[in-house]
Amino acid sequence: MNRLWIKQARLIDPSSGTDQMGDLLVENGVIAAAGTVPAHSGDCETLDATGLCLAPGLVDMHVHLRDPGFTHKEDILTGCAAAAAGGFTAVACMPNTKPACDSPEVVAEILGRAKAAKARVCPVAAITCGLRGEQRTDLAALREAGAVAVSDDGRPVPNNRLMLETLREAQEQGLCVISHAEDLEIVDGGIMHKGQVSAQLGVKGIDRASEDCNTAAVVALAESSGTRVHIAHVSTSGSVALIRDAKRRGAQVTCETGPHYFTLTDQKLLSQDANFRMNPPLREESDRLAILEGIADGTIDCIATDHAPHAKEEKAVFETAPNGVIGLETSLALCLTHLVHPGIIPLVRLIEMMSLSPARLLGIKAGTLQAGAPADLVLFDPGERWTVDRTRLHGKSENTCFDRMEVTGRVKYTLLGGRFTYRQQDDD
Fold first, then answer.
1. Active-site residue 306, yes or no?
2. Which range (28-42, 119-133, 197-211, 292-306) has the least confidence?
3. Dihedral angle sign, alpha carbons of residues 289, 294, 295, 297
4. How does residue 41 score in pLDDT terms, banded at 50, 70 and 90?
5. Buried b (16+ CB within 10 A) or exposed e, 207-228
6. 395 neighbors 78 (Cβ within 8 angstroms)
7. What is the mean pLDDT of the chain?
8. 194 burial class (0-12, 13-18, 19+ CB within 10 angstroms)?
9. Contact of 54 with 6, CB cutoff 8 Å
10. Closest among 302, 221, 229, 290 to 261, alpha carbons compared
11. pLDDT, tens digit (0-9, with 9 covering 90-100), for 277-317
12. Is residue 12 within 8 Å of 368, Cβ to Cβ?
């Protein structure tokens, strides 16, 4: 029997609200016991976790692995290596690949390539064929092939009738609908937030209304039909308020935000560094504070990275660079630094937002240290300070907006099915 005994860890289990010292025993890739581990005989590898937190492996419900079609930016294996280094054991990959993930064949191709990966890959399939916003995909067939959610992420579904039909059918199929809330007519070619900074730089901006209008529309569709919807990458104070009010009325609306939206503002764009360009864009300080408030009061359900790799040459010119930044390896540290250590949320709530909540939304087995669960685990030092270095990350691309930032909290080990997929000492 393959056994691993992790000793003297601070156990963080959001499924039970646990935050206590204890041990954890892994047997054949499954958690056998947590808390007080009984004495046992036989061969057993041990790991002294003194000073470390032990939590369920993190789940990122919004990543771009760029595979198939754009593997010069990232591929499934490199993206999952980055995920493991960040403490993630499961990632949901968006469908804007080439070809788009709009058929059972592409879902199967992604799952086939993921068999050798260092994280569980959960395909998000397209809502419309080719992500063109016209003809709906076969949700039942996509679900049967292994898709866990549907989205046209990167573009909104432009037709409200089509979106309403999707919400209803997805609920029947048990699929999460992830909405990219954006009005492209309002965006109208903007490349950053519309405000004083965009005016100072003389570039076209994106009004907050581009996100708020579409958020309001999708919330109305879900509320009127009694269906569920998940709003991706919330970035504005208006969207936070809309979602908070919808939840108070009992609407089945959930949402996510990313670390860059509660740590940075559009002031970073004054450098004209395209690594601070993403979609939705960095907003103003009032929006950043609203995101923090939404995290603190529970309006925001999940932290996701929207990990979006681009090659260095693609990000070279500020005005023409594609939107997107990477984030898998910095997410936990940023959340510890800006959410837990300042006392905005407790650690068990953070792990809920980064593991249990996304797992429940995607319908996958994760987010718990209970006996019988897969031994998908992360061990991290919550107090270790380190400096982000884009040249030492594990993916193919370096387009982080946190290069040279000092953060507190570092992943030391990641395990997938009881097998080590990352050891921090191997990077030293």
1. yes
2. 28-42
3. positive
4. very low
5. bbebbbbbbbbbbebbbeeebb
6. yes
7. 97
8. buried
9. yes
10. 290
11. 999 999 999 999 999 999 999 999 999 999 999 999 999 99
12. no
Instruction: Give the whole-angstrom CA distance, residue 383 versus residue 161.
Output: 50
Look at residue 198 and tell me whether its pLDDT is greater than 60: yes
At 421, list the tokens: 């997929």
Q: Rounded to the nearest 10 degrees, how much is the dihedral formed by the CA atoms of 55, 290, 234, 344? A: 0
Reported as a single tens digit per residue, the pLDDT across 136-147 is: 999 999 999 999
Tokens of 101: 């993930």
Q: What is the bridge-based pairing of β-strands 30-35 and 58-63?
A: unpaired
Structure tokens at 51: 């000073």
Kindly indicate the confidence band of residue 42, based on its pLDDT and cuts at 50, 70 and 90.
low
- pLDDT given for residue 38 in this prediction: 76
Residue 378 burial (CB count, 10 A) = 27
pLDDT at 1 over 60: no
Choose, from 102, 153, 306, 381, the residue flagged as catalytic: 306
